[in-house]
Amino acid sequence: MTTTVRAFPAIRPGFKLVPAVIGTPATGQQIVYIECPNWCTEDHVNEWQHSVDDVSHWGDYYGAGIPSLTAEGPVLELSARLFADPTSQDVRLREAHVLVEGLAGADAHLTPTMAEQTADDLIKLAAKLRTAARSARLARNGDSDPDMDGALRRVREGQSA
Q: Please, how many CA atoms are within 13 Å of residue 37, restricted to the half-sphere of its CB?
């Protein structure tokens, strides 16, 4: 009896070999093994695809919703995660990049540099949002000047400067 030894395919650094279900329940499905980036959290067995070319890789989802006092639930939502579509016709989408999604359905595909700049801009926006919140809180409490110094505030409260 002759034993046939088949070489196991070499896996690139930063990748793992995982099972994926290909096909449809109606026409038949089979499990194949695909190269998957280490950052991918997609369950390629439960999230089956019609063909191997349809397999995309998704990282962990993180997002934020922005509520409104005039509406129930968030009126704006923003989420982001790592994404790669290895067989995309757009070669830029084949490499790992940051996918930012919103409620409007418009997706932004960001290079690492673009994602870092966007993160910096969002940090600046968050700081300005916090400043606006403090100003709104002061205005609601009867203080019309959010830049008023502490001494004047203490005098208005009946304390010594």
A: 19
For residue 92, give every residue at least 6 positions away whose Cβ sits within 8 Å of its Cβ, in sequence order, or none: 109
- How far apart CA 45 and CA 9 sit, in angstroms, is 20
Burial of 57 per CB tally in 10 Å (0-12, 13-18, 19+): buried
- Does the global pTM surpass 0.85? no
Write down the pLDDT at residue 140.
84
Helices (H), the chain: 112-140, 150-156
User: Which stretches of 10-156 are DSSP H helices?
Assistant: 112-140, 150-156
Nearest by Cα to 22 from 11, 35, 38, 33: 33
